[in-house]
Amino acid sequence: MRVLAMTLLLALAADPARAAGEPYRDPDRPVDERVADLLGRMTAEEKFWQLFMVAGTPADDGARYTQGAFGFQLDAGGDRTAVVARADAVQRRFVEDTRLGIPVIVFAEALHGLVHRDATVFPQAIGLAATFDTGLMAEVAAAIAVETRDHGVRQVLSPVVNLADDVRWGRVEETYGADPFLAAAMGVAFVRAFEQRGIVTTPKHLVANVGRGGRDSYPIDAGERRLRERDLPPFAACLAEGGARSIMTAYNSLGGVPCTASAWLNRTWLKDELGFDGFVISDAGAVGGAVVLHGTATDYADAGARALAGGLDVIFQTAFEHAALFLPAFTDGRIDPTVLDAAVARVLRAKFALGLFEHPYGGDTPPVADRAAHRALARRAARASVVLLENRDGLLPLDGAVGSIAVIGPDAAEARLGGYSGPGPERVAILAGIRERFGAAVEVRHAKGCDRAPAGVAPVPAAALSARLDGVTGAGLVGAYFANVDLDGAPALTRLDPQVDFQWSIASPAPDVLPGDFYSVRWTGELTAPGNGAFALGVSGDDGYRLWLDDELVLDNWRPLAAGTRMAPKPLAAGRAYAIRLEFRSPTGNARIRLVWDREAADEEADLAAAVDLAATSDVAVVVAGLAEGEFRDRSRLALPGRQDELIRRVAATGTPTVVVLVAGSAVDPGAWVDRVGAVLQVWYPGEEGGPAVAEILAGDASPAGRLPFDVPFAEGQLPLTYDHTPTGRGDDYADLTGRARYPFGYGLGYTRFAYADLVVTPPVIAPGDTAVISCTVTNTGPRAGDEVVQLYLRDEIASVARPVLALKGFRRVALGAGESRAVRFVLGPDELSLLDRDLVRVVEPGDFRVMVGASSRDVRLRGVLGVVR
User: Fold this and answer.
1) Fewer C-beta neighbours within 10 Å, C or N terminus of the chain?
2) So what's the pLDDT on residue 2?
3) Coil, strand, or helix at residue 61?
């Protein structure tokens, strides 16, 4: 015992800070004092690691993380117990085995449910926006937050508050729509619920993540006025009103500068003007985009230094190995020490505020989530999100004498959940929901009809390919890769590729040996078509390719052209092996190349015919159709993919009353069939309880009351299209089409009717800093209970700068029984009435404001005037 005591005394004498107690470990000291103390003890390398976050679990031995780390996005496999145990094991390694014992932040995606195996999946974000119900959104967010905390996660990379200005964008589903007021309201409801429960939220992607043509992460050249009026307000609201403690930058550039390094965005606007004291993180791999995409940095260390100088705090990467690329800039003095310390302080402040130094382990807290209650909430949210687009002759609800229902379509039995989703532990498909709801009294039969993918065309699978490399025969083709575009000389790399199905948009096929924008490839081997049908062979690609079969040139497209699919005139004989050679070149990068085949459509034609026959012998047909969309899956056309449009037309042609249910996170062009069907429902990706919820809407157990959070155009040529544009210099229309939407923002039908009356503006005239109350009475004049979404729009009649023709400034979702009336009130004040003047100063100008209250941006029921005088 005396030896142990002496050893302890010697250790304390050697470390006076420890002998006196380390202030940063004292929970009774102010956070800023703890931050300053810890910061003063850190080496430059330790500081770097607090600014490096990784999407993945650290290696089991932990030897590579001796300097600490910001945090990790752990593997979500396993149930809650397994996930928390894994997180705690990682946390223990950092708390106990690093010099300073700084805990890490465990983070995850939670866009519409924590992306873990046993977590509840709610309707996709765009569906939650369609509820136009911030109270419901707050309930959903609170449930997600509870499950998130149960799993030991302390930061979520959500919500997405980018505006979906162009519905071709593949990530519309992740957003709250196209309107800044709606996006801000929904974002605040989400953020506040998490932050109140001790979980850091990360609104993203600062600032605009969709560019011209509806393309993801395309460069943004918008002026400061547009950014401040439209794109930035939802972020500002999430910070000021919701209390978000983190924010994520976008991949794209803004005015020629990558958003990760934009000093105007991350310093001037965010930190200086708003006073944001949280931390700014990049999107995964985005900092390196300055090197491989934007061409604004010489290497990764340079990119990291520029990002820190531009106001970024944390570099988010996908692997530990990437740290070595950025570390030199943090240790060689390239980064201003005050900038570095300020970034680290922001991270440490969050870790102290989260209580991680005192309570680092999730396993110390028992779970409190009520899964049954959360599933019930998921069903309620799904019902509230459904938008009824058409209902001719009152086809819906199906509460009459329906003896048989044909449920048709590729999405009927799949229960797709949308992007950034967990698996949905008990998800129920629409087909199963209909069967459960209508029971044995109604015959419910199913036929797929067709696939979502384009008919027949698909990549040739590895099983049909074979090649010999280094004396070993394997499945696939041998690819010889050349560091030139003429297949000259010896290849820089030779490997076996299981398939030719590549899209090299960012890097080259082999970054270590090939330039990303100047290379060629020759694939060789054998192809054998299965013996169960006839096939046509082809290539889908760009830049230039040639295809040989048995040394016969069957496709020659050795030209730098845009991507397209071309089929060879020579069909494949079943069971025969062909020698195959495919050559490809990419002189400018951003390349795609696919070896495809097209099986004769006999099978799909049979599926279509079976679906049509089923519809013809049923009382009602419900066709469930869907989009193929998501991250990096932008669309050039808004029609349904594959043969789904044809399926709907052929089903409707049977004369059977037809309902179309759209499983889609963005706009669908229904022009090919909308006049032939009786009803159309957009159900988004309705979550794990979506099947029962949609069935209840079809049956009339609830009246649909979701509203569109964006405008649906008649044609792609109208895009981008938003209801709240400023006045044009001439007309809105085209020579061959209206300039307005097919279905406008805020639109949605129901099973009952509502009347609006008695608009009152109190007082009718106010001073610039005052508020006014707008009230009206809404009455359910229809035969059944239902919800109405009452929407308030404003127009500034005369202003110093052009203002939107109308803009949403308030909404209320009210539930009314048949014959019931209710007063609805809105408050208008400086936030709603102000504008940015010619000098970009926010002011409330005197003048008249047109007040419009109604059921959509095009369905105004009441009008009034509010005057502002000095």
Assistant:
1) N
2) 40
3) coil
